[in-house]
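Hi everyone,

Forwarding the result from last night's run.
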Amino acid sequence: MCLKITDGTHKTPQYVEKGVPFISTVNLVPYASDFNFSKYQKFINEKEHKELIKRAKPEKDDLLMAKCGTVGRTQMVKVDYEFSIFVGLMLIKPDKSKVYPKYLEYYLNQHIITKLLESLSTGATRLTLPINVLKEFEINLPFINNQPDLKKQKRIVDKIDELLTDITMGEDKLKEILSDFDTLRQSVLNQSFKGKL
């Protein structure tokens, strides 16, 4: 189902103040439209980037998976700008004639799958998922006439999108309610010590 699975550079590059973004495992946020740069943002120069993308060139609709640390955490590339990746990330180039990339992102981010990938990882102090394990990893796909059913994959993704939107709206509403309770708590305390209750 994939045209290529590889990992990022095995050497630490020379960082620069501004340049091409250099993505690590800490930048991954499943389902997000961009990477999380709040805690970690590194850049490399254009020359080094050109060298690194000979090994791993991430493009839109590819997937990036953490192969160490939080093993299995996966984010689909939705950005238009170029970037390079560190060794802790695996680059997965799905065969779009067989698998819908977002279906693969949702599938790989299931708790049961990340736990399974963790169990297949090696290392005592720091778990690392070998590339060959992922290359042989089986994915459940809907089929029709002995061919992967892309339309059904898309329908599944659309339904998940709809449900996740509902969950996000519910979370936002819950945050509002909790904020109201916090305001009420503060009001009760203030009024109590002013002798108004």
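Residues 4 and 194 are 68 Å apart (CA to CA).

Cheers,
N.
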